[in-house]
Write a structure and sequence with these properties.
Layout: H1 9-20, H2 25-32, H3 36-46, H4 56-69, H5 79-91, H6 96-106, H7 114-122, H8 174-178, E1 184-191, E2 198-204, E3 210-215, H9 220-231, E4 241-244, H10 253-260, E5 263-266, H11 276-288, H12 300-311, H13 323-334
Parallel strand pairs: 1-4, 4-5
Antiparallel strand pairs: 1-2, 2-3
Length: about 325
């Protein structure tokens, strides 16, 4: 009798390559020497989210986490800590990391890890949050709470025609990836299926400052206008580079470079992690404006409110300062 072996990262990368090549699940399984049901389960677990793409490294991380947490009883035993966690989640929109960081400062004797908070939230449900509720549903207060979703779309997407004169991220200065200086941005568009109205999002990589702009459509002209309008208000040294995805709303990248004197780079197709700061921020915005929201019905005031909330939330990597505080310090140094 043979024992089941977990998929390796190399096998997961081959699955991704097979999806890009439009091979069938059975063909991918045959190439790996695996049962087709193994490939189906792997995709069912890991093709989620708005863009529905399979990312091998994320799948590997989830698999390791499942193994490490298997069989554990997950809860916070101290009622003072529970009350603090629930209050911060519900009343102040804090994430588990922010709660753990501020708790350690305000009540050092009660210091806990962010993971303990996540475990407390999901321990109230059978099957790690996918079954029936045994307590109050705190998942709704998480910025990226897990949901069971039905497969409606193909697990891969085909790029449209290439954007002319793209410069890929390989040519981007190394200081951008190292996050050693302010002024390097990532951009994306969020779309609504109910109307043409969308959102343009820009995020500064070092500070995490987010700019959200309502756009009447996701054409290149409208996107270019939104990007240049928001970024031109800052000194040039605070808008040195911009990294985009390969959506055709970014076809006006040369106009952006000309108007802002900002170098524009493109992530590789299907490499969303190369714009991880922006992807994470879009996930936070989706907590306020869930998938299915018609952006045409969202007021400018509401968008400004969401932008302000994101920019005034303490961040662990900023020493629990807010993006707005750190960015304003950078602006002061440039003036």
């Amino acid at each position: 009798m043979t024992h089941y072996q977990q998929l390796t990262i190399e096998e997961r990368e081959k699955i991704q390559a097979g999806l890009w090549e439009r091979r069938s699940l059975r063909g991918i399984a045959w190439g790996l020497g695996r049962d087709p049901s193994t490939i189906y389960r792997e995709l069912y677990r890991n093709i989620k989210g708005e863009k529905r793409r399979y990312v091998p490294r994320m799948a590997q991380m989830r698999a390791v986490e499942r193994i490490q947490t298997r069989g554990r009883r997950l809860r916070l035993k101290n009622h003072n800590i529970r009350d603090y966690v629930i209050r911060k989640l519900k009343a102040e929109d804090y994430s588990p990391e922010q709660i753990a960081g501020t708790l350690a400062i305000e009540h050092p004797a009660y210091a806990i890890s962010p993971e303990a908070i996540y475990q407390f939230i999901y321990a109230q449900y059978h099957r790690h949050g996918y079954g029936s509720c045994l307590g109050q549903d705190l998942r709704i207060y998480l910025k990226r709470h897990h949901q069971v979703r039905k497969h409606k779309y193909s697990p891969f997407q085909v790029e449209k025609g290439p954007i002319k004169n793209r410069v890929f991220i390989d040519a981007r200065p190394s200081e951008v990836a190292a996050r050693v200086s302010c002024g390097h941005w990532e951009g994306d568009s969020m779309v609504s299926r109910q109307s043409l109205v969308g959102l343009n999002t820009l995020v500064e990589r070092v500070t995490g400052l987010a700019l959200i702009t309502k756009i009447q459509n996701t054409t290149a002209d409208e996107t270019t206008r939104a990007v240049t309008t928001r970024l031109k208000t800052y000194p040039w040294r605070l808008r040195k580079t911009l990294t985009l995805d390969n959506g055709h709303e970014n076809a006006g990248h040369e106009a952006i470079m000309e108007q802002l004197n900002t170098r524009v780079f493109f992530a590789h197709p299907y490499h969303s992690w190369e714009r991880g700061t922006n992807e994470n921020t879009n996930g936070l915005i989706r907590w306020y404006l869930p998938k299915g929201t018609d952006f045409a019905t969202v007021s400018e005031e509401r968008i400004r409110e969401i932008e302000y909330k994101l920019n005034t939330r303490p961040r662990k990597r900023l020493g629990w300062k807010t993006p707005l505080q750190v960015f304003n310090q950078s602006v002061a140094l440039e003036c």
